[in-house]
Design goal:
alpha+beta; 2 domains; five-stranded antiparallel beta sheet; 12 helices
Length: about 475
């Protein structure tokens, strides 16, 4: 089950926060782009969605209780997978440089060979380089948010498609915190179910994050196939979602904005966690957790009621909502008015909480018993009948949709639920960077006689919780 992270200290004054933002912005300016002459330093993050629609242990311990020498060190080195691999000619040149270095050391220690100097230049002055704005060609605009615009682009280095998230910088404000979080939290994460950040380009006016290009997202995919997805596809999508979440949760990172448009779907059916602008980790400086996280439809009742004392359980409620939406074909709790309306929709199915069912609920800032109708809990299939058509689906969904946060199933534990018992055992043995589709006989089923397709991007329902759209 999920344990809770302790709340942090009260927020500092606004002036100090602005100063911190400027300092962090300057840090980006000074460190991110020393790589200009050393080629591409791969960074793994996520491609943001353009849509505006709405450890090995199964228990995640409170962060402050983990001894320093026991904390997971996020791997920040390359894993051997390079999505922007160098052309063969460059690889050959690197090998010849290495040989030259070895020969130089053995034959004339302390002296620099003229031949070695000639070969030390990484590339000609006119060739495209990583970390440079002119290394990428913009093809079309994909979306625009309050502080960023996203384009489909192409790398001039190797011709691969990319997504360019161009963040406009304000002189006084510096780099937006959401962009800082994305790059700083996720540059060491390498997993097949998390989208890659390939490059960072910093200029005086903009910060551009260069992401792996993924064709569509789960929201668009469900729009293309209304009425609920094929049950086998739901299982594969959910397995991949839990796989990615388990990976980040074991590294004490919360996503905090799970929703269908932040789950990207490749043309092969691979699901990738995206949009980590609201993600949080212990390593990032902070003074408080916010309850202004997660798009309304996927926000858990504890956060809706004002709790800022949360952990991985926050993400697991969103998993339950997405699971039901994939099976049923409609959002689980589509609040149309405000937080009060959202809570009423939840309590109508899950039951109105009390101190007996949810210890501590009366102490939450926005919980006033007289404000809510008292409902008794129902079987989930009474609200979403298609849950009853799939073995163990209702039971798994009910383990996610628990009002009491500590009762929610963790991502790692969910991967071992009976719902997945008919999948090939090799799926649980895969390396982090291995796709589930490398396992024989694992593939998406056709939806309504259709093969998986790229969907045209268009506006959709719901309200995004962060300022970024891509």
């Amino acid at each position: 089950m999920c344990d809770l992270m302790p709340a942090s200290q009260p927020a500092e004054k606004i002036g100090k926060m602005k100063k911190l933002r400027r300092t962090l912005s300057e840090s980006f300016r000074s460190i991110a782009f020393k790589k200009e002459d050393s080629g591409f330093d791969e960074i793994c993050v996520t491609k943001m969605s353009t849509r505006s629609c709405q450890g090995t242990d199964s228990v995640i311990k409170p962060l402050d209780t983990i001894p320093e020498d026991k904390k997971v060190r996020v791997q920040r080195t390359q894993s051997g997978f390079d999505p922007f691999e160098k052309p063969a000619s460059q690889v050959k040149r690197v090998h010849s440089e290495n040989n030259a270095c070895i020969n130089a050391k053995s034959s004339s220690a302390g002296k620099e060979s003229p031949k070695l100097r000639r070969h030390s230049s990484p590339s000609s002055p006119t060739s495209p380089k990583f970390g440079k704005a002119d290394s990428y060609e913009k093809l079309e605009k994909l979306g625009e948010g309050s502080y960023a615009t996203v384009y489909k682009g192409k790398s001039k280095v190797n011709g691969k498609l990319v997504a360019l998230k161009v963040i406009r910088l304000q002189e006084e404000e510096g780099t937006p915190f959401t962009a800082i979080r994305e790059a700083s939290l996720l540059k060491g994460l390498k997993h097949s179910n998390i989208v890659l950040l390939h490059d960072i380009i910093h200029t005086k006016e903009t910060l551009t994050l260069v992401f792996e290009y993924v064709h569509t997202d789960l929201c668009q995919y469900m729009d293309k196939h209304p009425g609920g997805l094929h049950p086998d596809n739901v299982k594969l999508f959910l397995f991949q979602l839990l796989r990615g979440l388990s990976y980040i949760h074991q590294r004490y990172i919360l996503h905090r904005d799970l929703k269908p448009q932040n789950l990207l779907i490749s043309d092969t059916g691979e699901l990738k966690l995206a949009d980590f602008g609201l993600a949080r980790a212990k390593s990032v400086p902070s003074h408080t957790y916010s309850n202004e996280v997660v798009t309304l439809w996927y926000r858990p009742p504890d956060v809706l009621l004002g709790s800022t004392d949360y952990s991985t359980c926050l993400d697991m409620w969103g998993v339950g909502c997405i699971f039901i939406e994939m099976i049923q074909g409609v959002a689980a709790f589509p609040g149309m008015k405000d937080i009060q309306d959202q809570l009423e929709r939840i309590f109508l199915v899950i039951g109105t909480p009390s101190e007996d069912s949810w210890p501590g609920v009366n102490s939450l800032p926005h919980f006033k018993p007289d404000r809510f109708t008292v409902y008794s809990a129902k079987k989930l299939r009474q609200a979403w009948n298609k849950l009853g058509y799939v073995d163990h689906a209702e039971e798994l969904a009910s383990r996610f949709l628990q009002c009491f946060p500590k009762s929610r199933l963790s991502a790692q534990a969910a991967l071992n639920h009976e719902y997945f018992s008919n999948l090939p055992p090799r799926l649980w043995e895969l390396q982090d960077m291995s796709s589930i589709f490398t396992v024989p006989n694992v593939k998406l089923q056709t939806e309504s006689g259709d093969s998986i397709q790229v969907c045209a991007r268009r506006n959709s329902h719901g309200k995004a919780s962060s300022g970024s759209k891509h």
